[in-house]
TrEMBL record:
Protein's recorded name: DUF309 domain-containing protein
Domain of life of the source: Bacteria
Organism: Nitratireductor arenosus
Gene3D superfamilies assigned to the protein according to its UniProt record, in alphabetical order: TTHA0068-like
Pfam families: DUF309
InterPro entries for this protein: DUF309, TTHA0068_sf
Amino acid sequence: MSDRIFSQAGALPLPDTAFVPGVTRRPESGVFIDVADAAPETTDPAGWADNQAWLYGFALYGNGFFWEAHEVWEPVWMGLRPNSAERMLVQGMIQLANCCLKLGMGRPRAAARLAHHAADCLWNAGHGRTARVMGVDVAQLAEASVAYAVAIDAEAGSGALERLVARRPVLEWKL
């Protein structure tokens, strides 16, 4: 990761606590809200390495801020061309974040449905492609998402939801 990109998104502070609907109070302010609000109206897929909302979402997701990751990725998704590989990728990643959020809320069936939907989106994003999309190896992430959906289906009734969250697919980008 280049220093320029790290300073753009990786150095932004994380929220104090993760928002979990029905458990914690919804935040009304914070860096992640400012980043989401400042996201460009149109997302340039070729300029992903300069998109602060896109990159900050990785830090949020990786640190367990799933609702917040969704919030910063949503304007990125909205700014992409409909039916594009990039839009499918971002939709899949949003669904993975939502899946983890549902696990944290104790809703494994909803989480399993979202994990399967994420995998479908990611497969569609990577269909016929071997290269990365917006810095993400979509084929690898699609495979990890399918495995995660299967794990949720198999273990959701065991009550080990926190363990499932910890085993979530790793989201990473590379130049």
